[in-house]
């Protein structure tokens, strides 16, 4: 377990509830609460431990707060410049900052995409706030972002200035980077002695056909011409950023993560990038919580082939298996074969779609449906203890 993880001993013979979120329906914490509510009704004598999990994307701060970290709220700029109240988490001198909190898709007014102008500025402001609070290790969760600005906004949020040929500050977003002429980094905080770890994925480089604009631009609403425009802006940004920081990062694995925010973290924060699920499960102390568990229940919205490439529930299953605990999964939909589940160290999987085929009702009633699934889980995996007979 990470040295920064709060230590809470688990009761003997407990059931560990460690789901990820069900996107559009339930946060990880709410999913855990519904599982717990159902199991308490079905097996009131079984001790339960709730440990919502995350993979570094949306819900990361919520997960560590549920594990005992302190939540801190601060007003920052959202992806379109409107102020938003965003959260970070603190535990001792460690902090968790989440891109989706300040610069996420869910922060777009009305959900309307802004592929050319959305900025990561608020995420930089969150990092700066964590530094002011004394954090010496910052875990930066990159996922669910709305921007394709190469992390230029993050640098602005930390106090840097991006200037055009007239010495004026550039407007936000990736498209404006084509007009970048100079960087003024005198306002950046002193990051020496501060470790920054990105909870990321195996995203490609910053530029080109597998880069941030080509991969993430369309996901954020960019058309073909806009993708070319964004890539040109990111190229200009990379040229000047690497020269200013004296560090080449554009071709490093993960530089293209989350619209290129990974590039700024590597270049200006000296960050390292680690697989999000493994890093988060270590922070949450999953291995210790699974030790001695009678059963571990994990899950997410959809269990499919993408899950096998590194989702949080698969990480939970493998860590729990190493701790000697059996693992089952719950999901909105299940698209894995029995053999695939077994290879992932999952003994069985239960899907809301099995009891509610209508997708709209399944999302709307995800919580009660999860509670309904716990009846089958209890019957199959938590047999009731026979009551002692009494004689008159």
From TrEMBL:
It is an enzyme of class 2 (transferase). Its EC number is 2.7.1.31. It comes from the Bacteria. The keyword NADP does not apply. Pfam families: Gly_kinase. Keywords: Kinase, Transferase. GO terms for molecular function: glycerate kinase activity. SUPFAM superfamilies: Glycerate kinase I. Belongs to the glycerate kinase type-1 family. NCBIfam families: glycerate kinase. This is Glycerate kinase.
């Amino acid at each position: 377990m990470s040295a920064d993880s709060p230590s809470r001993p688990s009761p003997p013979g407990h059931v560990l509830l460690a789901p990820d979120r069900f996107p559009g329906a339930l946060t990880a914490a709410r999913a855990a609460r519904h599982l717990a509510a159902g199991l308490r009704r079905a097996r009131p004598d079984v001790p339960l431990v709730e440990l919502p999990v995350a993979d570094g994307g949306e819900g990361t701060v919520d997960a560590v707060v549920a594990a005992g970290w302190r939540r801190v709220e601060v007003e920052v700029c959202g992806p379109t410049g409107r102020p938003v109240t965003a959260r970070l988490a603190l535990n001792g001198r460690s902090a968790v900052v989440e891109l989706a909190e300040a610069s996420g898709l869910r922060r777009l007014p009305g959900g309307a995409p802004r592929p050319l102008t959305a900025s990561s500025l608020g995420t930089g402001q969150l990092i700066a706030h964590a530094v002011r609070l004394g954090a010496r290790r910052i875990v930066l969760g990159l996922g669910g972002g709305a921007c394709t600005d190469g992390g230029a906004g993050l640098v602005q949020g930390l106090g840097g200035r991006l200037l055009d040929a007239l010495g004026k500050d550039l407007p936000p977003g990736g498209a404006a980077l084509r007009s970048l002429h100079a960087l003024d980094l005198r306002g950046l905080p002193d990051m020496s002695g501060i470790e920054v770890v990105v909870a990321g994925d195996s995203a490609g480089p910053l530029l080109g056909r597998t880069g941030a604009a080509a991969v993430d631009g369309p996901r954020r609403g960019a058309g073909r011409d806009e993708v070319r425009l964004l890539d040109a802006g990111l190229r200009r940004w990379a040229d000047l950023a690497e020269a200013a920081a004296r560090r080449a990062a554009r071709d490093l694995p993960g530089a293209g993560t989350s619209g290129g925010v990974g590039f700024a973290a590597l270049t200006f924060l000296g960050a390292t990038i680690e697989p999000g699920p493994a890093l988060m499960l270590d922070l949450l102390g999953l291995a210790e919580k699974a030790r001695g568990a009678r059963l571990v229940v994990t899950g997410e919205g959809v269990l499919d082939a993408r899950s096998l490439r590194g989702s949080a529930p698969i990480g939970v299953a493998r860590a729990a298996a190493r701790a000697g605990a059996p693992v089952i999964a719950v999901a909105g939909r299940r698209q894995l074969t029995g053999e695939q589940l077994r290879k992932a160290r999952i003994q069985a999987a239960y899907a809301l779609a099995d009891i509610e085929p209508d997708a709209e009702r399944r999302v709307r009633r995800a919580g009660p449906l999860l509670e309904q699934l716990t009846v089958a889980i209890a019957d199959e995996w938590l047999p009731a203890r026979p009551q002692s007979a009494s004689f008159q």
